[in-house]
């Protein structure tokens, strides 16, 4: 299928091109993010392939439909960026890559936790400056600490398994209970998870229910000095509230791989540019905040699987087969 691929980087081509060759799909790569300004590039393409920060609003979907697009292959798991009701009305089908490597995201989550605890980001620069003093680098044992996992699907479960290996006590909150997770820890009400956890890690999708799940009210219930890690979606955390909680010490450590306004920042080299997002800049001033730019998924294994499943989705759509990874409007 002739497909316009948006938000393409060299690493995307490296994995998508061989997968397309094997399956006979014709990919046309655009570096641009999909926005109201760039959507005309998709005119005449029956399919487009997009990533996490490509907008698929009603306005953009309407332009895509008018240009003949019938299928959207998301090369990611999350689909909060898609107006699914509009897509259904416009008869555009949408498929995603539901599980490419939960290990990649879980391992990065735990990397953020460990780095924050042992202050590796500070130790790295300190040692390079021949400062071998340990003051300020004191950490704690993960063994015996209570970790609250919000969202116990594929990534939450993988994260829980790693933390169980460290000897952490695990508390879970989810709208559905995962029997495998239940063997590693206890499901508790959200309030109990918030009050009892030393570390809270977010692995639920971004929905109207989870928007700003971490905000003034939930932060106030947590243990002072709590560690929060978000590798899920930026808008699960109210950045303004997090900054206030960092200033007061209520948050002791904050690890973010995602940020609610990341679309204007991440996946690009802005090193010569003055950042205009004051909240983001403020976050970077805290010594106990560690931000990575949506790289949790970024392993060779994950990119190989994303390319393979994306091509399979294109093939199924083109040949009218059952679209096993179709994303539908939630009932
Ligand atoms: P999943 O669908 O397997 O699991 C999500 C879990 O969240 C499910 O168990 C679901 O029941 C639960 N959930 C839904 N609504 C909830 C709510 N209101 N409160 C509590 N739990 C709720 O998804 P996954 O593959 O584990 O991915 C989790 C999230 O990770 C995705 O939604 C995506 O946004 C994010 N993600 C991030 C990256 C990255 O690179 N940073 C990569 C992949 C996925």
TrEMBL record:
* Record keywords, A-Z: NAD, Oxidoreductase
**Which Pfam families does the record associate with it?**
2-Hacid_dh, 2-Hacid_dh_C
Task: State the Gene Ontology terms under molecular function.
Answer: D-lactate dehydrogenase (NAD+) activity; NAD binding
Please list the coiled coil stretches: none
Q: Does this UniProt record's set of keywords contain Oxidoreductase?
A: yes
Entry keyword annotation includes Membrane: no
**Where in the numbering of this chain does the D-isomer specific 2-hydroxyacid dehydrogenase catalytic domain appear?**
5-327
Cite the D-isomer specific 2-hydroxyacid dehydrogenase NAD-binding domain residue spans from the record. Answer: 110-296
Organism domain of life: Bacteria
| Family statement | Belongs to the D-isomer specific 2-hydroxyacid dehydrogenase family.
Q: What is this protein called?
A: D-isomer specific 2-hydroxyacid dehydrogenase NAD-binding protein
Organism source for this protein? Pirellula staleyi (strain ATCC 27377 / DSM 6068 / ICPB 4128)
């Amino acid at each position: 299928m002739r497909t316009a691929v948006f938000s393409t980087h060299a690493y995307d081509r490296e994995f998508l091109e061989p997968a397309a060759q094997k399956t006979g799909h014709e990919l046309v790569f655009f570096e641009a993010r999909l926005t109201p300004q760039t959507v005309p590039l998709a005119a005449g393409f029956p399919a487009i392939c997009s990533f996490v920060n490509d907008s698929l609003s009603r306005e953009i979907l309407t332009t895509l439909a008018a240009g003949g697009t019938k299928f959207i292959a998301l090369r990611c798991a999350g689909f909060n960026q898609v107006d699914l009701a509009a897509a259904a009305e416009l008869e555009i089908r949408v498929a995603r890559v539901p599980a490419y490597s939960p290990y990649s995201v879980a391992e990065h989550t735990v990397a953020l936790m460990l780095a924050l605890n042992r202050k590796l980001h500070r130790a790295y620069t300190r040692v390079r400056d021949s400062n071998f003093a340990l003051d300020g680098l004191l950490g704690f044992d993960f063994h015996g600490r209570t970790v609250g996992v919000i969202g116990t699907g594929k990534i939450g479960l993988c994260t829980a398994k790693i933390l169980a290996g460290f000897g952490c006590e695990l508390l879970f909150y989810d709208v559905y209970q995962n029997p495998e997770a239940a063997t590693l820890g206890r499901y508790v009400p959200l309030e109990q998870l918030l009050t009892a956890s030393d570390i809270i890690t977010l692995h639920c999708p971004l929905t109207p229910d989870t928007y700003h799940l971490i905000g003034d009210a939930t932060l106030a219930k947590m243990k002072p000095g709590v560690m929060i890690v978000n590798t899920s979606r930026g808008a699960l955390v109210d950045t303004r509230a997090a900054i206030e909680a960092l200033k007061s010490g209520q948050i002791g450590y904050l690890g973010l791989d995602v940020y609610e306004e990341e679309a204007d920042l991440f996946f690009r080299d802005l090193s010569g540019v003055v950042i205009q997002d004051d909240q983001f800049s403020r976050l970077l001033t805290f010594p106990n905040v560690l931000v990575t730019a949506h790289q949790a998924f970024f392993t060779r294994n994950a990119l190989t699987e994303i390319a393979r499943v994306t091509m399979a989705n294109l093939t199924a759509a083109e040949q009218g087969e059952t679209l096993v990874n179709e994303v539908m409007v939630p009932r």
